[in-house]
């Protein structure tokens, strides 16, 4: 089998270091020609980073890339394109105000004698690509009018138009319908028959088994399994993805839940181009309960939290806090009713970097320190000091700018700002993103303590270990819908299988 699929590109000892993290730790990876090499791993395992190295989007810190027996270095995406490498990113890189043909040929437009763009040739080639992809999309259609699945097809056509010898597909089916997925698989078969090497990244495990010839599994920046796809099943993939280790963030005290503190019913958020980003989601939280909201990128988890915080006026559905309807239509109104959100991007949405730690902490609760037109600075400073002590935020002085703190301590300031509003329900979007393992443990201890004080916590995470160890109950979302609900102590394979709701998970994987 390996003779039929010669190695077209090889990475040896691939290391990628970002400030504060080693995303890849000495990775060896081969792309075989005329075959599909699938790459799988949890969110944050390093899959997209590895692909960015191959596609010239990122420069490798250490290691070598060889093609056809000679060492190459891709310093830019143009270098990789010149070597015959195309990539379809998970996030669409398209221009909604341009036509389909203009998007497909942007940056490499056919010209007439090098003078002006040959728009007719663009149209002809676009029609051929759309026929090949079995799509009834005309070349002059404005891209922004297409639904998201059709835009994904255009992104694939854009890569095909460059006659790539190696084609990287990063989550290519995340927005496609079942019929479009079948078309994509037919195109993949056609390309591999022509000798093209394909790298295929997906979280949908049944897809990987169906489409792959070779499989590589990444975990925390290292490869934990690499083999031919013959004999590979979902339990093997799950074991290689998550291993047997589980991070210790578990509950030490006995759970003691109070009555229902929050309920959401039939929450919907329409998506541009049709369908729903949040698709009729219902859930509830009890006082003292930590509910983990798990799912893959694009599942609609963050958008659901934003709906709770009244950040999407077009959303519909009903909320209750402590049994009373939540009718307030704006963010201050929701905060006043006892809901607080810790956003995913703390630097952009949670903090004002140039302001003092004290000012950031009290930002959402200034009315509590105000009488008529005067701010009681003494009371504000004392309350800020109390919260710094309560959350063990390591600060030299509350008057220092918040930007002087480490990531973990900045996260605690965001938590403190939310707690100062006196919430009953705390929404946390990826509370451990971008902080080191010691700071994570601190944040998780804080979450446990708050729950013990009677707060209801709903937290979004892409880390399987986290959701399994921290949650009193796990809710899984996929494609905007709730696809599974599990008690604490549920097996990892069951949780993973709920993220791909159409997969037939073998019985032994779920046991």
From TrEMBL:
Cytoplasm in keyword set: no
SMART domains linked: AAA
InterPro entries linked: AAA+_ATPase, ABC_carbohydrate_import_ATPase, ABC_transporter-like_ATP-bd, ABC_transporter-like_CS, P-loop_NTPase
UniProt key word DNA repair: no
Annotated source species: Rhodobacter maris
GO molecular function: ATP binding; ATP hydrolysis activity
Keyword vocabulary terms for this entry: ATP-binding, Cell membrane, Membrane, Nucleotide-binding, Repeat, Sugar transport, Translocase, Transport
Gene3D superfamilies: P-loop containing nucleotide triphosphate hydrolases (3.40.50.300)
Membrane topology (UniProt): Peripheral membrane protein
Gene Ontology CC annotations of this record: plasma membrane
Compartment list: Cell membrane
Domain of life: Bacteria
Protein name in UniProt: Erythritol ABC transporter ATP-binding protein
Every ABC transporter domain range: 9-245, 262-504
